[in-house]
Amino acid sequence: MIALELILIANVFGITGTTYFLGMIGLFLFWNFIDIYQLGTMANIDPSGRFGAMIPGAQGLAMAVSPAVAGYLLGEKGDYQVIMWMLAGLIILSIVAYSIVYAVLRNLNTTQTSDGNEPAMIETIY
User: Per-residue b/e over 62-72, b at no fewer than 16 CB within 10 Å?
Assistant: First the structure.
């Protein structure tokens, strides 16, 4: 959320070298914190670890494709504000997606506990 706020502030005040730098620092600094939740969620969904092992590959693919997408969006004008809006939109999309997964897992945990079964491992994430 803080990274999103930094990106949106950069868009409101215009893209300068400083606002772009602060937005990118915020994004990549908080990316490391998100990885912990992402891997924890995958461990709860798939105890075998197969899907968790795919996360670095998916991130590598995204890092390989992103410069091409950013170059296309920049176009000949070189307007970095388009890139910052795209980042803000993707952060919002990821927050929504994670919230849906979290709600489903929390509901699963509540259902298993009320049935008298062993509680799900979701408690390790929150």
Answer: eeeeeeeeeee
